[in-house]
Amino acid sequence: MTVLELTQTTETMYSPIHYLPAELLIEIFILCSTRTDPLAPLTLARVSCLWRQVVQSSPRVWRYIYLDDRSSIASSHAHAGLWTRQSYPLTFDVHLDVSESSRLVLPLLSPLLPLMNRWRYYSMSGKREESVDLSGSLPNCVDPLVIVIQDPDQLETEDEGTEGLPRPTFTSAMPAWLTMNIWVSELPKAPVLVPLRFSSIVMTENIPTQPRSILEFLCSCPQLEAFFFTGWQHDDETLTSPLPIARLPNLRTLHIRSTCGTRSLLSSIDAPRLSELHLAHLNVDFTLGAPPEPVDGDSEDEARDFSRSASSDRATGMGLRALLLRSNPPLRVLDMDWSDMRTKDFRFAFARLGVLEHFFIEASDMSDKVIELLRPYVPARGGKDERVRVRLPRLKSLELSNCNELSGEALVEVLSERVRLTDGFPAWEGNTLKEVIISDCAGLKGHHGNLLRRELGNRLRLRD
To answer: Region (Disordered) spans which residues (predicted)?
Structure first.
């Protein structure tokens, strides 16, 4: 042993701090564990066997978790995992220092989000300053996740809470329930995220974001039950490689609004439990880019029906086709608000939506050929079963609004014939129309309404 080593050993053996009781050492170590030295517990544990034992056996020393965007995501995740394990079962404080990119807020926090019931205090520094004391009511759940994809210049604002500007990362919706708000200029990708456990995500696009980025993000959300996406109309991406498939086994509600990427999104989501699909403001009067490799159904609409939004009709219809073929979801609700399809796509969908109960469509250019699909029919000769059938056999609620290409005669004939069949036979008991709402359909005149009321009675509601 050298003189230096002997001197250091002697000093260690007789250092006064080594005579302090463990309780005092713990208090000293807690003071050392501040944001100025976020790795203090690891440093202290290397000093001696005694200190290592004290640090590793004291959850209070590990209650302060400090993360920043200057470390790699992998090391930050390892850091968070170690601190949460060592501090168990105590609550802990989280401080996030983000000075480079707000895109990293969610990746840095993702391993800690499942443990929100242990968060005591949260603070952020760097590009934004905020803090929230959670000690009074520890959150049981963080849901939904609200994501706004915003221009980078607007992310620098200091005026939080203003309409259109960043809100605090966590806001309280109700006791023990938080909403998480993330404002980014681009979505984080799945490889930098610990799988997210949000059941609801609300995403708003204020700058161009391609469907690929949205799908890649959704791949990290396997427990998602409801997804609400509001975009804005910009050119879809030119595909040079296949889009990723977002497998969402628990997704039950999907809202897609105001985007030109409808086909890409619907075609690349696998949602075998989807029960509600809401499509809104997807119609556009300009031509969308064609897919690189056309598939079955991409041909022109053989019905040659008039359309003010021919290109988006095709995109919406082809997206819905792909969703139905891949997932065969048990859709009960289909809402199409200023969203339309070709006649051939309605025919394709109606043949596969065997449990649909509610169908709403507004501002459609669909013709009588579409409403005719709801008329009872007998399958083509040659099959063994030639009984009368109806498409959408469980349809209970039908709402048509501002569908001005429909004629009153077709509406009266089809709906009257349908309810006579489904009302009159025991086999259809419970599976007949319970509500029909028709509003602002120019082809439906007063006498048509009177004829329909004779058949439907109080089930019919007419609105001007």
So the answer is: 290-313
Give the span between the Cα atoms of 215 and 29, in whole angstroms: 45
What CA–CA distance (Å, rounded) separates 351 from 354? 7
For residue 263 the two structure tokens come to: 């086909």
Handedness of CA 230, 233, 234, 237 (dihedral sign): positive
Tokens 């001696």 identify what position? 48
SS3 148: strand
- In a 3-state reduction of DSSP, which class is residue 221? coil
> Which residues, 6+ apart, have CB-to-CB distance to 11 below 8 Å?
none
Q: How far apart are the first and last CA of the chain?
A: 99
The reply to whether the predicted model has a pTM over 0.90 is no
Which pLDDT tens digits describe the chain residue by residue (464 residues)? Answer: 332 343 344 445 546 666 677 788 888 888 888 766 778 889 888 888 888 898 899 999 999 999 988 889 999 999 999 999 999 999 999 999 888 777 889 999 999 998 988 999 999 988 788 888 887 766 667 889 999 998 776 665 544 444 555 678 888 766 667 889 998 888 988 888 889 999 999 999 988 888 999 999 999 999 999 999 999 887 766 777 889 999 999 999 999 999 999 999 999 999 999 999 999 999 999 988 777 678 889 999 999 999 999 999 999 999 999 999 999 999 999 999 999 999 999 999 999 999 999 999 999 999 999 999 999 988 876 556 668 889 999 999 999 999 999 999 999 999 999 999 988 776 666 688 999 999 999 999 999 999 999 999 999 999 87
Q: Which of 418, 348, 357 is nearest to 389 (CA)?
A: 418
Give the sign of the dihedral formed by CA 73, CA 75, CA 81, CA 86: negative
Pairing of strands 226-230, 253-257: parallel
For helices 446-456 and 408-424, angle between their N-to-C axes, nearest 10 degrees: 0
Contacts for 325 with CB less than 8 Å, ≥ 6 apart: none
Q: Looking at residue 198, what DSSP letter applies?
A: -
